[in-house]
Amino acid sequence: MAAGTRTRTGSRGAGGGRPTPVRTGRKHLFAAYDLGKDKLYGHVKTTKNRSTFLEFCRYLRTLYPAEVRIAIVCDNFSPHLTTRKCQRVGLWAEANNVEIAYTPTNSSWLNRIEAQFTALRYFALDGTDHGSHREQASMIRRYIIWRNKHAEDQQLREIVDRANVA
């Protein structure tokens, strides 16, 4: 069971009856993959909106000199988009030498980071039952640190290569 739900069985914790899930909220992983350096970056946040997306983009921008143009590939989730109503993403990108590219609808497999998520699930999440969001976020952060130090690990390479279809 993923962090974010707990089950309680019966009344007053006694047996009998069906377990009822008790929601404890969600956490969201903002992640980026640098193809040139073969490095994964990630922040776990409590909200997933345009402001937190821009906060993560600002962090990514600090990793490279201002004169280096960077490209951020995103899916079409609404906080990533510039709309008539909210142009913050596009204006920020234009002012900061950043190109935001979007994968076509239902084509997330074109984004190279998806294979990295397959490895993250395999090494840090599969077969686990994290007791809290904090514990799960810690495992994700520890995996990212390990992954960046062991980018040439044979098992990691096999999982990523198998998942990379694009």
Automatic annotation (TrEMBL):
Superkingdom of the source species: Bacteria
Transmembrane segments: none
Domain Tc1-like transposase DDE per the UniProt entry, residue ranges: 23-125
Compositionally skewed regions (Low complexity) per UniProt: 1-11
InterPro entries, A to Z: RNaseH_sf, Tc1-like_DDE_dom
Region named Disordered: 1-24
A Gene Ontology molecular function term of the record: nucleic acid binding
Record's protein name: Transposase
